[in-house]
């Protein structure tokens, strides 16, 4: 007695892919460069990760003679308008061999509603297109899988179990830090500059008039005040060095 193996179901294989072939593009930079690509994408296309990074996420390096101009324009328009796109397009691997790709472009938004990333998923459907079961109909949609691919892509970037939030957090300023542009720091700099001029003028003056000068009652208070100011200047400079 022999048992026959069940025939592979193309629809099931599309709805439950075993790998994720995708790239992530920065939606807020010029030409939307690729900031991450999966291992599956490198295996599918034959390009190394270093050859893919920083290139436009439209993946123009996969285009070739059989890539329809209308499909190229669809991809560019989708990225420019920041809208979803699912289409079948002929791409070329690094070796020059072509394959039919089910391209799914999904904008990823942050909590403010701004599009920050593009998820471009690539699925090789060459065998499914040639199979009789799918020749007369459209390729089943991958919409149920897309959210899972988004989470996996962002998990790969974050390197942790929690999905990173693309938001701008306010920097908490400590009261013990003197900012370079703060009023206290500016006042301190002006005080140091003023005391520097004071030392540059008073030290030569005191040295020139200290020899043989009699201490008069009228100038005693002024001289005592000068001593206090000199002491204050020294304390300020010492504090500046300790800071």
Automatic annotation (TrEMBL):
Query: What keywords is this UniProt entry annotated with?
Result: Ion channel, Ion transport, Membrane, Transmembrane, Transmembrane helix, Transport, Voltage-gated channel
Question: Can you name a GO cellular component term?
Answer: plasma membrane
What's an example Gene Ontology biological process for this entry?
regulation of membrane potential
Q: Where are the transmembrane segments?
A: 188-208
**UniProt xrefs under Pfam families:** PAS_9 (PF13426)
Under SMART domains, the record lists:
PAC (SM00086)
A single GO molecular function term of this UniProt record:
voltage-gated potassium channel activity
Region of interest called Disordered, as start-end residue ranges on this chain: 1-20
Q: Which reaction does it catalyse?
A: K(+)(in) = K(+)(out)
In this protein, which residues make up the domain named PAC? 85-137
Instruction: Extract the InterPro entries matched here.
Output: KCNH_animal-type (IPR050818), PAC (IPR001610), PAS (IPR000014), PAS-assoc_C (IPR000700), PAS-like_dom_sf (IPR035965)
Biased composition, class Basic and acidic residues, residue ranges: 9-18
NCBIfam families, alphabetically?
Answer: sensory_box
UniProt-recorded name of the protein: PAC domain-containing protein
* Species for this entry: Macrostomum lignano
* Lineage per the UniProt record: Eukaryota, Metazoa, Spiralia, Lophotrochozoa, Platyhelminthes
């Amino acid at each position: 007695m022999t048992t026959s193996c069940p025939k592979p179901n193309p629809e099931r294989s599309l709805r439950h892919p075993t790998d994720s072939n995708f790239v992530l593009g920065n939606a807020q930079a010029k030409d939307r460069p690729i900031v991450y690509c999966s291992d599956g994408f490198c295996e599918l296309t034959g390009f190394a990760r270093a050859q893919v990074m920083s290139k436009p996420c439209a993946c123009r390096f996969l285009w070739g003679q059989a890539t329809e101009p209308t499909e190229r324009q669809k991809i560019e328009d989708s990225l420019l308008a920041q809208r979803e796109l699912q289409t079948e397009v002929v791409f070329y691997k690094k070796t020059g061999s072509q394959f039919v790709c089910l391209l799914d472009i999904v904008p990823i938004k942050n909590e403010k509603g701004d599009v920050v990333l593009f998820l471009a998923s690539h699925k090789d459907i060459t065998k499914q297109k040639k199979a009789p079961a799918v020749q007369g109909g459209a390729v089943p949609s991958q919409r149920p899988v897309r959210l899972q691919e988004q989470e996996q892509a962002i998990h790969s970037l974050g390197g942790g179990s929690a999905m990173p939030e693309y938001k701008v957090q306010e920097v908490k300023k400590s009261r013990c830090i003197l900012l370079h542009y703060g009023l206290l720091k500016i006042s301190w700099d002006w005080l140091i500059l003023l005391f520097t001029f004071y030392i540059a003028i008073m030290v030569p003056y005191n040295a020139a008039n200290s020899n043989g000068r009699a201490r008069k009652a009228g100038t005693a208070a002024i001289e005592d005040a000068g001593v206090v100011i000199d002491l204050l200047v020294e304390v300020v400079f010492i504090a500046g060095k300790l800071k």
